[in-house]
Write a structure and sequence with these properties.
The structure holds two protein chains of two kinds. Chain A contains eleven helices and no strands. Chain A is mostly helical. Chain A has a single domain, classed as MetI-like (MetI-like fold), CATH 1.10.3720.10. In chain A, α9 runs antiparallel to α11. Chain B is mainly α. Chain B is 69% helix and 0% strand. The chains are: A mainly alpha, B mainly alpha. Chains A and B meet through α1, α5, α6, α9 and α10 of A and α5, α6, α10, α11 and α12 of B.
């Protein structure tokens, strides 16, 4: 187990290293890279001074190692557009994204798994087809359009919910204010993921329901409810947990769009603004952090397997 | 060369006479003919529709700005007085082309990388597939944002960036398929007959892998239409005055309070196009690969 864990961690570190190096070289080698920040009217001296200040006159490998060394100590440089250090800014934005994405994930798990189970129990009946059809429709809806439509309905028409932001500007902090702002973005974000979760939960349960031990449980006269909850669902959890690793990148990508629609001050919105402003240290940091989250979660999920399913032995 | 003629002797037959082709099988399914009809309609309207109208999609008419739907302008006009319907047709050309071309990019990259890794194995597999792992670890949107920040947002860059964000997924599927195929007797037979590795790869292995890649690619077109739309909506994709469904929606955001119709139709068009490709992909999977359900 420990050997497995350390091997997985090592692999993760290696992939992280690859990701950060690739991103760094992409940003720095490209024609539009950091050196293009300079004003065309600036003198050669000014340009040299700026390159000196940003350390752009040194070889790229050295600069990458420099970045890596600083990043490992939690220093990610200064934002070019805002001048402040990237690390604290990113930490704050990450908390906001975690709140939004976590809420969406919770919603999608509750509704997705429930709908999937329901659909599997009614396999081949109209309700199963209906869930399938709605899933396909849901996969085709652009989340930013859905967000705009909801804003049009609930904010513009009905004045029910605030159209954007995380808190009412100027008002004292309150939980209800936060929740009211959270509701629409979290719903839209969870809607993006829902079709996948429903399909996955459905097929996971269907597979388990055909197993011998389910037939045994039924034939010894257990009620359907007990068969489902105590025998079938327990084993269906494994693929459902595995799916978490698969939808996480989707969740993070989705948060980029949803945060922008609802002006939610999270990491995704920060990444969009950084891309607009060509704020390279921020772009570098958000990209690597997003990858780190995905890699770490996948390692955690592998470990979770062995907790959920004692048969999984990591040698 | 005798070996050459022998390997050519049994070329895979595309269609057995008397057995219906892929298109015929597709048309038998509701999902198949509905999606194909939708696609013919969307592509036809976008590429042929504007030919019927001599108006320009970019010329502005400030006096006719933000008019509601009427007989003259069935979908109203936008903030610069341009006909919304005409712009949607021109936008369709861009959005539908970006979706299709970027998936061709992903298809070619995925087939080559996944196919070679699966066929050659060894060091090639390790290097290529770890590269795919690294790529796949970065959530697509963050990678795309970084790339657009560096290379700018011209249409070719958008196409390339969207396509290359899907190649990893494609490569994994192709890799898994090629691993299965390389064990099969027809590959062994071709090798035993003296066919070169290049020949076995391109003439025997790849054609067997293509159907699964096409299924994934069809679903992927829907995905890349959505992605391009989202990027353009964020202001980082297709740039105005060139219309795309995504940047039309971005423009409409400012006017949701006064001219809500601008925010409805382009989104509907995106949803229909993506739905059509998703349905077609599912129908194709049933036809080409009846094992998976």
């Amino acid at each position: 187990m420990l050997g497995y864990l350390s091997r997985r961690l090592l692999q993760g570190i290696l992939v992280m290293f690859l990701v950060s190096a690739a991103t760094f070289f992409l940003i720095n080698l490209a024609p539009g890279g950091p050196s293009s920040l300079m004003n065309l009217n600036s003198t050669a001296q000014q340009r040299a001074a700026l390159e000196q200040q940003l350390g752009l006159n040194r070889p790229i490998f050295l600069r990458y190692l420099n970045w890596l060394g600083a990043a490992l100590q939690g220093r990610l440089g200064n934002s070019l557009s805002q001048g402040e250090p990237v690390a604290p800014l990113l930490a704050q934005r990450l908390r906001h994204t975690a709140l939004l994405a976590g809420t969406a994930l919770l919603l999608v798990f509750i509704f997705g798994v429930a709908l999937g189970i329901w659909s599997a129990r009614k396999r081949g009946r109209p309700i199963d087809h209906l869930v399938g059809l709605v899933s396909t429709l849901g996969m085709s809806l652009p989340e930013f359009w859905l967000g705009t439509l909801l804003i049009m309905l609930f904010s513009v028409r009905l004045h029910f919910l605030p159209a954007s932001g995380m808190l009412t500007v100027g008002a004292p902090w309150s939980l209800s204010d936060l929740l009211v702002h959270l509701l629409m973005p979290a719903l839209v974000l969870s809607f993006v993921l829902l079709p996948n979760v429903v399909r996955f939960a459905r097929s996971a349960l269907l597979e388990v329901m055909e197993a011998d031990y389910v037939r045994t449980a039924r034939s010894k006269g257990l009620r359907e409810r007990a068969v489902l909850l105590r025998h079938a669902l327990r084993n269906a959890w494994i693929p459902i947990i595995a799916m978490l690793g698969l939808i996480l990148p989707q969740l993070l990508s989705g948060s980029v769009v949803v945060e922008s629609v609802f002006a939610w001050p999270g990491m995704g919105r920060l990444a969009v603004q950084a891309a607009m402003n060509r704020d390279y240290p921020v772009i570098m940091a958000t990209t690597v952090l997003a990858a780190a989250i995905v890699i770490l979660t996948n390692i955690l999920i592998d470990l979770l397997y062995s907790l959920v399913d004692p048969r999984v032995v990591h040698a | 060369m005798p070996s050459r003629s022998l390997t050519q002797l049994r070329r895979p037959v595309a269609r057995v006479p008397g057995r219906p082709g892929v298109l015929a099988l597709l048309l038998r399914r509701p999902a198949g003919w509905i999606s194909l009809a939708l696609l013919v309609l969307l592509y036809g309207a976008s590429f042929l529709g504007p030919l019927l109208d001599h108006h320009s999609a970019t010329a502005t008419h400030p006096l006719h700005a933000l008019l509601g739907p009427s007989w003259l302008h069935p979908l109203g006009t936008d903030d610069l007085g341009r006909d919304e319907l005409l712009r949607m047709l021109y936008g369709g050309r861009v959005s539908l082309s970006v979706g299709l071309i970027s998936m061709v990019v992903a298809l070619v990259a995925g087939l080559l990388v996944g196919g070679l890794a699966g066929y050659l194995r060894g060091a090639v597999e390790t290097i290529l597939m770890r590269l795919v792992d690294a790529f796949m670890a970065i959530p697509a949107f963050f990678l795309i944002l970084a790339e657009l920040a560096v290379f700018g947002s011209s249409p070719p860059v958008v196409i390339l960036v969207v396509g290359l964000s899907f190649w990893g997924q494609m490569a994994r599927v192709v890799f898994a398929e090629s691993l299965k195929m390389r064990q099969r007797e027809f590959i062994e037979a071709a090798q035993a007959l003296g066919a070169s590795r290049t020949r076995v790869f391109f003439r025997h292995l790849l054609p067997q892998v293509v159907p699964s890649a096409i299924v994934l690619g069809t679903l992927g077109v829907g995905w890349s239409i959505l992605t391009e739309a989202a990027l353009s909506f964020l202001g980082l994709g297709i740039q105005p005055p060139l219309a795309s469904w995504g940047n039309m929606l971005q423009n409409a955001q400012v006017y949701v309070w006064t001219s809500p119709w601008l925010a409805i139709y382009p989104g509907l068009a995106i949803a229909l196009a993506v739905l059509a490709f998703n349905l077609l992909g599912n129908a194709l999977r049933d036809v080409l690969d009846p094992r998976i359900r």
